Amino acid sequence: MAECLNVLRFHNTRYQKIVREHQGSLEWLWSHEKYQNWSFSDNSSILYIMGKPGSGKSTLVKYFRENLRDREPLTQSACFASFFYSFRDGEYQTSHYSMLRSILYDVLNQNESFFYHFQREFHMYQDMKDGRSEEHRTGWPYESLKQITLSLGDHPRTAERSYFIIDAIDQSDEDDRRRIIELFGELCSKKACIVKVFFGSRPIATLDRYINSPEVIWMQVMNKEDIRAFVDSFLGPNLGFSDDILSRATEYIIENAHGVFLWIRLIKEELLGYSTTGCSKGSIFRFLKRLLTELEGLYERMLGELEGGSCQDITDGIKMFRFVLFGRQPPTILELQHVLAIPDGPNDGVTEESFQDDLVICMDKRIFHCGRNFLEIKGRGDEASVQVMHQTVRDFLLRPDGSAAASRFKIQVNGNHTWICTICIRYLIPFAAYTTPKANSTDIGPGFWELEHFEKYVQYLEGRPLINYRLSFLPIHMQKTNGYCASEECSRLVSMLVGYMAPENPATYLIGDWICTVFARAKLHEANEDHFRDQLL
Length: 537
Prior knowledge:
Helices cover 53% and strands 7% of the residues. The chain is an alpha/beta fold. It has a 5-stranded parallel beta sheet, with helices on both faces. Helix 4 packs across helix 6 (142-151), helix 6 packs parallel to helix 7 (177-189) and helix 24 (506-519) crosses helix 25. It has 4 domains: 2-221, Rossmann fold, CATH 3.40.50.300; 224-293, no CATH class; 310-413, Arc Repressor Mutant, subunit A, CATH 1.10.10; 416-537, no CATH class. The protein contains 25 helices and 7 strands. The longest helix has 18 residues, at 416-433.
């Protein structure tokens, strides 16, 4: 069973990034008629949390996942499996294949009695894998995972329930979305055990058509009092509004929020920013009434502020947006810092010295200055990642007939993977050209290094956070371009890169084979790459 779990293991990144509920909010869920009909029934069923973008659906789904055992004593021994789709966190996080792996791992990890549903398919997968050479091996077949998921409904009925908590279905891959929704419906139609499915999503036709569930909760109908509490938490304490103006401002915001928490969050930032200039309470209220009452309008206002920046501000902002929107995973702050230091003009060159000179100091401030509230930082320290604030930001920036498309921040969908490929290769060139640190100035080649040489080289590599991304995902970005590998620009850059792959260069030991594989080049030099990498590790 342990080997089966290892194959299924998948890191769902979205859950930890979801904003927690405001203190005291969402309590209404447990007494809601639709929830109680769904929860107290001994039949398998689906509860559907529907809401506008930014209305707090994901926060509610996370709140439910974290508090169900405390609020419902009968669930103490229940099995919980969850997945939170996210377009912002990269393609793996929108994949139905990833979702199935994740929930099946949760089920099996919590209750080994389910293993017999896995055994037959797992043994078939092992036989298939053993019968292929290593380079032709694939993961556990997608259809097999769907079959196992469906078979869970045949598990003998016990007092224990199985909960499947799936958020942001609207952000999942459109391919096969309908079949996945139908699969959960079929799972609930089985009578052997009790299955409870908790869906969160914005309204989409696929869901409305294929989820046959009378239990639907609309967020914007239920969150008015939660919004009131959130507004009171910053209008009074942060802005010092007196009772009369506090009441008028609160009612104005609630009336114009239309159930969208995200709009209020942006309004809060606008009001707090305006108040720092030194102004009266009345002028703050008048400023509030001048702010637009739709997300689109606020986004246009934010975009206008970005367009007023310098040419360098706009250049950096566009580079951030392109890498965040089209990268395979959210970049860390350090990775994005290195992206900005790589020039992307057709005739631009990069050296180690120019690269070091162009590294931005105080990168968190640069992200806010060039990305405003469109971008947000999640986490702390060196591993903190950067992503767009909400899925609606992605939609706004990439809409072909929208405001962004007519601005200086126009980001076309086509060509971004080619741009990332170019940045990736340019990043490797100074690494290859200047890869040996000055502390290692020695005539001893890497094949004869001692421990101290490896330790210094590891320190050098730790200062190159983008190398791992380049080696892992550059081939995938190349697959998404139309013949980039055969382009003149790619050929020129790869030739420069290969030119530095000498036997005495440690980069040859690290990425020589990778270059040959990715760019179909002949073997560069004889080098004991495996031994060299083992020593580094």
